[in-house]
Write a sequence for this structure.
C-alpha cells in the first residue's frame, strides 16, 4: 500500500472514557473502486455524489 498524502490528524479521547487523548490520521487507507462497488461501500448520504460523478462523466 502506498502512502496517503493529504488529510490531517484528529485528536480523540482514547480509550473512550479514560480522559486520555490520542492523535490519529484522519484517513487510514484509500482504494479505487468502480461505481457499482463504490455504491456498496459508501453511506447512503454519499450516494448522490456518485450519481453526480456518473452524470458528469457521461454515464447512464
Amino acid at each position: 500500500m502506498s502512502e496517503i498524502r493529504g488529510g490531517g490528524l484528529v485528536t480523540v479521547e482514547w480509550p473512550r472514557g479514560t480522559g486520555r487523548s490520542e492523535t490519529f490520521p484522519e484517513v487510514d487507507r484509500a482504494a479505487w473502486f468502480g461505481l457499482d462497488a463504490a455504491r456498496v461501500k459508501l453511506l447512503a448520504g454519499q450516494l448522490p455524489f456518485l450519481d453526480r460523478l456518473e452524470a458528469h462523466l457521461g454515464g447512464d
Notes: The CA atoms of residues 7 and 23 lie 13 Å apart. The chain has one domain: 9-56.
